Amino acid sequence: MIDFSSSLYLGLYHPSCELESWGQLSTGKPAILQETPQAQKVAHQLAKLQGFSSGLVGTSTLHLFWDVFSLLPRNKFIIYMDEGVYPIARWGVERGRARGIQTRVFPHNKVDRLYYLLQKDQVQKYLPLIVSDSWCTHCGKPFPLREYWQLARQFGGKLLIDDTQTLGILGKNKNKQMPFGYDGGGIVQWLNLPPKNLISICSLAKGFGVPLACLCGDKETIGWFKKKSKVRVYTSPPSMAPIQAAVNALSTNHVKGEYLRKRLYGNMLLLKQAFAKHGFQLSGGIFPFQKLELKHLHHPVSQFLLLKKHHITTVPVKSPQGFQLGFFIRADHQLSKIVWAAKQVSILIQRKGFTHEKSHILRNSQFGRTVG
After folding, report:
1. Residue 16 near residue 25 (C-beta atoms within 8 A)
2. Per the count of CB atoms within 10 A, which of 49, 82, 202, 362 is most buried?
3. Which sequence ranges form a coiled-coil region, renumbered to this chain (predicted)?
């Protein structure tokens, strides 16, 4: 079996034997009353890794997005959201809109349309909060964040990024030998964006393999959030299990993160080359999530089930272009299995019966949803 359905890109699993023990799982207190030293340390390290001056940890990106958009003053900001953002950030924006904050949704990656909306709204003298993801898995490239950041700065607002996809993968000082860059600090470091006017919310669940989120920005922004947050008053903070897993992930990143990223990049290239050898082209750019177009097929769910019977697990993906088979590449994938899988998938696609496998699952399942 080879599994291409897990987004634990660096192959970090954090078994209990690798983690420091803890005396109690939870403090039983909201974060507003007490944050553990370990949580504060993790927040500081994550902020520094991404190039920010301050940060804090949260239970999930859903908690953080919900809280941020619950706190925005209605008479001060207008939200501008790229329509291609992942649902979690979108739910936060919807929370803000439900509270009466003006919201504009502009076409994916259309900087000119965003500029038009910003110009049009200038008469209201509200500050813009531009909301975007970091990397588009459909396009295989980053969102136009530098342009978004420049517009946010020009109009006196801020850019809020969901950087879940690239944290732990991309980093600073990218070059031809290592397009991912180094250190794993995410998209802000990879694009060398100044942290001014920037806020980052991201989960550690992909690159670092930890169900924990962080909010990072300047000291003023994080201080405002700590003072105003409702989630930190009415919900429990992250338990010690994910905090200790984050400590382990950051330690591993410091010790052998570059080795894991180089191996990950090599595995991604190998999969693309192996498919090309059999006449198939994968899309996804340099990122370790690659997609195989199946334009001549009905739906990929039946193919997903057939591949699973042959011990290959993929991800059926719905995209603007149609249906695709998705492949999450990990650093711990074995080279021989990558080559074997590409060959087996290619053979099965070329079989006459592959296009006629039927499945009733598509109508009632999550397989038709977009992978973010």
Report:
1. no
2. 202
3. none
Distance CA 94, CA 257 (A): 37
| 41-88 residue pLDDT tens | 999 999 999 999 999 999 999 999 999 999 999 889 999 999 999 999
DSSP state of 235: S
Question: For residue 191, which amino acid is it?
Answer: L
* Length, in residues, of the chain: 372
Residue ranges covered by each domain of the chain: 26-238, 258-351
Question: What long-range pairs does 268-274 form, CB within 8 A, spacing at least 24?
Answer: 268/329, 270/335, 270/338, 270/339, 271/327, 271/329, 271/338, 271/341, 271/342, 274/338, 274/339, 274/341, 274/342, 274/343
Q: Quick one: pLDDT at residue 196?
A: 92
Residue 323 has pLDDT above 50, yes or no: yes
DSSP-derived 3-state class of residue 290:
strand
- For the stretch 233-273, pLDDT in tens is 999 999 999 999 999 999 999 999 999 999 999 999 999 99
- pLDDT at 23 exceeding the cut of 60: yes
Number of CB atoms found within 10 A of residue 212's CB? 25
Q: Hey, what are 365's tokens? A: 């399942």
Residue 275, classed as helix, strand or coil, is helix
User: Biggest alpha carbon distance in the chain?
Assistant: 64
Extract the tokens encoding 306. 């057939």
Q: What is the CATH number of domain 258-351?
A: 3.90.1150.10
Instruction: Give me the amino acid identity at 211.
Output: P
Residue type, 168: G
- On whether the pTM is more than 0.85, the answer is yes
